[in-house]
Amino acid sequence: MIRKHIFLMIFAGLYVSMQAQTFVSTTPSNRNVVLEEITGINCGYCPQGHKIAAQIEEKYPNRFFTVNIHAGVYAPVSRINYHTIDGDSVYSYFSSQVQGFPCGNINRKGISDRGMWLPQTQAVLSTPSCVNVAARGILDWGTRNLTISVEAYYTGNSHTNQNFLTVAMVQDNIVSEQSGGAGNPEQYIANTNEYVHMHMLRDFITPTWGDTIQTATSGSFFSKVYNYTIPPTINDINVLLQNVKFIVWISETSKGEIITGNEAEIAHHNIVELPASLVRLRENLIHSCDPENSLNVAIRAGSDTVTSVEFAYGVSGEVSNTFVWTGRTIPLLASDTVNLSSFPITPNTNQEITVQITKINGHEVTIPVKKTTTKKFIYDADGVMTFQLTTDRWASETSWKFIGPDKSILSKGGPYANLSSNKTTFREYKLTPLMRGCHRLEVYDSEGDGINGGYGAGFFELFNYNGDTVFFDNGKFESEAVYMIYVNDEKKTTINTDKIYQNEVKFFPNPSSEVIYFSTVEPIEQVEIFNSLGQSVLHNRSGAAMLYIGNLHNGIYLVRLTTKNGIAAMRLVKK
């Protein structure tokens, strides 16, 4: 165990004794989340867990904190050893609950699969906390000494008389090997086949199961100061000061449920000169049928604050676009994101995007380039389409939407019921566009491994009104697959599509609440109304020139009216 020097100051009591308090909030708040993610470099599905955790962190910034513990059968100690004594102890205690990898502990409420992390997080975030915790520290780069002060204030009574405080050091940007790394493209370095590990546990500053908080009742205040020397290496792995973070949390008992947590604010002193860097590139899909896309770029300041950045970027090695970002200040070692302006691409083709920083604060710099792959699916279609979806065993993870040019959801489905074994279920829907223009079909998998990830070979396919394939997707799309579909003629249907006489048929009023009336040149043979799922909800073969719709729910429908001249398809708004 690494040597830890600790200085202690504890203050507990009523509100009147709070003159010692300096920075922790005294306002009641909800709980924050600490995820102890069990992982390993030999775990092929663990990058999917890393990705899900990163997405939750992005969704709930400053309220969700990850500690990646390398332990268990997929974490070796021979080649590269990312184990820690504290991490092994935590894993050992909870190992009887582990049924597969990756897995994690949301606030130590019990080991769960990665698919449960988001709903469990949302439940915790909506729960009131009896205590607020905060931490501030000073890190001296010359001595590698950290002085960190942790404060807690109780806005209510804990369920237990005593609580426990834990302080963990985690490290970002550790470049190493990782099985299945390509499953998390944002941390995968394709040209070297290496992987960027984030939030890796390096050490606990406190004892493994925390330091005791003797009084955990409403109005009590707790403070403790730690003095900790950060070693240059742990298990022969460099500990880079610019990449370390410190996560603090309070648990009800030494090994019990975590009440809340936070990340320490660290001031860096005597920092050595460090350049700014590109941290991450992310495809930023433009929801249009234009052949263009954009990128979301994460930049990290070095030893100087950053006020402006000039980017050069382009497709397939041609760095032909420039973008100058200004407007905010990025403090030293802090990160921020930039949306680059759009650039032209070739639809339906994998294309490599190269991005580099050419200037920082107006001065030319040489910073390693970053590369990523972009692909935007754009297809043409006409009329009522057929969407065939085959889900794998875990159909509860699958859902989809068909969205019109006005951003209205025309059809949607899922989540569905799971199967008992690795099989598939076939489903078919009619997708009815109600106007010309750019539509999109979005298929989601909440687990992040698509619908063809080893639990049944799921896939989906879209057919045009005449049965021709618009596109086919093999289901290996991770969290989301988005297809842009430009509908040239929304009136075409699956029956007699060569005979459509839209101008000869009218109906009114529209919108309508009870009755619609038809005006046609030829006698009406039948009227059929479809909902947004493509389901027939009303059918009339009487030939009447009016139709009662009062029993329909409010929304958008498609009216298909048949005469001897053909079929007319028209949009109806029921109000």
Summarize the structure in words.
A five-stranded mixed sheet has the order 1-14-7-6-19, with no helix packed on it. It starts with a strand and ends with a strand. The chain is mainly beta. Helices cover about 5% and strands about 45% of the residues.
The low-confidence parts are 1-20, 493-502
- Total helical elements: 3
Quantity of strands, as a count = 44
Distance between the termini: 69 Å
Radius of gyration: 29 Å
Q: What composes the largest sheet?
A: 5 strands, mixed
Which structural class is indicated by helix and strand composition?
A: mainly beta
Helix fraction, binned, reads under 10%
Shape: globular
Short description:
The chain has 575 residues and is mainly beta. The protein is built from 3 helices and 44 strands.
Question: Secondary-structure map with pairings?
Answer:
Elements: E1 5-7, E2 33-39, H1 46-59, E3 64-70, H2 85-94, E4 103-106, E5 111-113, H3 117-125, E6 131-140, E7 145-154, E8 163-171, E9 174-176, E10 188-189, E11 194-197, E12 200-204, E13 211-213, E14 221-229, E15 233-234, E16 237-238, E17 244-251, E18 258-263, E19 265-269, E20 277-284, E21 292-300, E22 306-315, E23 321-330, E24 335-339, E25 343-344, E26 351-360, E27 363-364, E28 370-374, E29 377-381, E30 385-391, E31 398-403, E32 409-413, E33 425-431, E34 437-445, E35 459-463, E36 469-473, E37 480-487, E38 505-508, E39 515-520, E40 526-530, E41 536-540, E42 546-548, E43 555-563, E44 566-574
Parallel strand pairs: 2-3, 6-19, 29-37
Antiparallel strand pairs: 1-14, 2-4, 4-5, 6-7, 7-14, 8-12, 8-13, 8-17, 9-11, 10-11, 15-16, 17-18, 20-21, 21-24, 21-25, 22-23, 22-26, 26-27, 26-28, 30-33, 30-35, 31-32, 31-34, 34-37, 35-36, 38-39, 39-42, 40-41, 40-43, 43-44
